[in-house]
Amino acid sequence: MNAPLRVGLAGLGSMGRNHLRHLSTRESCVLAAIADPDPQLLDDAVTKTGAAGFADALAMIADAAPDAVVIAAPTTAHASVALAAIERGLPVLVEKPLAATVAEGIAIVDAARARGVPLQVGHVERFNPAVLELGRRLAKGWVGTLYSITSRRAGPFPARIRDVGVTIDLATHDADILSWIAGERPTRVYAETAQRLHASNEDLLFGLLHFPSGTTGMLDVNWLTPAKRRQLTVVGESGMFELDYLTQRLTFTSADVGSPTLIDGYATTFEGNVVDVDVASHEPLAAELDSFLDVARSGDRPVVDGEDGLWALAIASSLLQAAAAGRPVLLDDFAGRIPAR
User: Fold this and answer.
1) Of the options 3.40.50.720, 1.10.760.10, 3.40.50.1100, 3.30.360.10, the CATH number for the domain spanning 126-282+315-337
2) Residue 3 reports pLDDT greater than 90
3) Which of 82, 156, 174, 322 could form a disulfide with 329 if both were Cys (CB 3.0 to 4.6 A apart)?
4) Pick from 152, 207, 217, 221: nearest CA to 186
5) Which residue, 41, 43, 32, 48, is CA-closest to 11?
């Protein structure tokens, strides 16, 4: 029981190399095997870690016999690799998005439940200390009734992303976070998308989410902004939280706006009473992997489980459907297809 877990890593892309950095230095696990079709990336990783190298992730799962698997392969490969690992009874951490389609996501979740295998989805923002502190403050009633949640996730175009658009790749983060903050799933969505630089998929999304309680969510997600931005604003009857995912800064502005001030003697503004909230900073991915290794040992339910990942994927897919149809889309159909816990 005290022996380090033997972990297999599938994929050495941008996120895969981040997982490699952590898994190769964890005392609680041994990076036993790595799979990637790029010979140079694979050779470098094997040389640095001493792990067994495989060109194919399915061969790694079959031949290396790991105790758990982290999947950071391209999104379109998630289903086949996850299902192969689950079939062997292996705990799985799948990078977000859970899968390329809702049907594939359902197949993964169903298989994990049938096999009794822990399935964690890599929505790393849930482990961001600023997000966790925000959640604690909201639970204590700092904003009272929740009015709106606005998320901005923008940055330059990543040439590495070819298989999906910005909605499935990035907006799944925000679909999950907004649902977590609201404490409920949206029932209706609407969106507009655009394709400016990507060869085959959308690279800009503006989305609206309606929650049963009346809370409204808004997503601004794109690969067109020349500077990376990761921001969240939560507004309620008693005030407003503003969060920067990158700097892990969290501020609270009370609803008592006070007297107006003037900018240059003519532009009226309200600065508000702003306070910085203390946040104990740490790297979210490190916390996510530690959580997964604990789950792989205990068999407990992950912090972000398959159902969470499936809902994020369903919301993102509904946003694309709404944009294509030019009308709001109800999530009743998805709610009926997604297996409840």
Assistant:
1) 3.30.360.10
2) no
3) 322
4) 217
5) 41
